[in-house]
Write a structure and sequence with these properties.
Signal recognition particle alu RNA binding heterodimer, srp9/1, 2 domains, 5-stranded mixed sheet, two-stranded antiparallel sheet
Length: about 190
């Protein structure tokens, strides 16, 4: 992965430098014909070549960054950033502690990517419990909302695990959601 990005940036950089060099030579020859006192020093040419190289390398690096893995390791909120986060020992919710049906967090993410999630309800205050309502396929009956279980991130004040990541994903995918205060839910219409 990194090798491909490096080779792509090297190719783009060398192509950009070649084009820049020929452009500089052309502009120098045109300007020197019109103005015999015109001189381009090496420093100006090198700065222009360096700026072009930096721009093309950044463009190539951004173009190769879309498979959500780095060196074959899937990105997570814990390893996807440049910082070395501590306190990330929690691996999310353990489904064996639940006394209700649930769907794994991985399956929820796959289904939200496919556009199969209709609505998500987070339980206040932090969203540690969430229920997903899936879209009804043709010929099926509508099911009750199901708890997002195994692997669901729990709020950890001493670490980096948080349901806020799930809220961000749901919002980004434009799936309707709400926060519900469990004790007050029975008073709503």
């Amino acid at each position: 992965m990194y090798r491909k990005a490096f080779l792509l940036s090297l190719f783009v950089n060398s192509t950009g430098a070649f084009c820049l060099q020929s452009t500089i030579k052309t502009s120098i020859s045109l300007k020197s014909q019109n103005n015999p006192d015109f001189v381009v020093d090496r420093r100006s040419a090198m700065i222009a070549a360096l700026a072009t190289g930096i721009f093309t390398m950044a463009t190539a690096a951004n173009a190769a960054d879309d498979d959500l893995t780095r060196g074959g390791v899937p990105l997570t909120p814990f390893n996807g950033l440049a910082f070395q986060y501590r306190g990330n020992g929690k691996n999310g919710l353990d489904a064996s502690t639940l006394n209700e049906p649930s769907v794994s967090y991985i399956e929820f993410l796959e289904r939200i990517d496919k556009g199969e999630v209709e609505f998500v309800e987070f339980m206040a205050p932090s969203g540690d419990a969430a229920y997903a309502t899936f879209k009804v396929k043709e010929g099926e009956i509508k099911e009750k909302p199901i708890r997002i279980g195994e692997g669901y991130p729990l709020e950890d004040p001493e670490g980096w695990s948080s349901p806020a990541f799930v809220v961000k994903i749901v919002k980004k995918k434009e799936v309707p959601y709400k926060f519900t205060v469990p004790g007050l839910a029975r008073y709503s219409n």
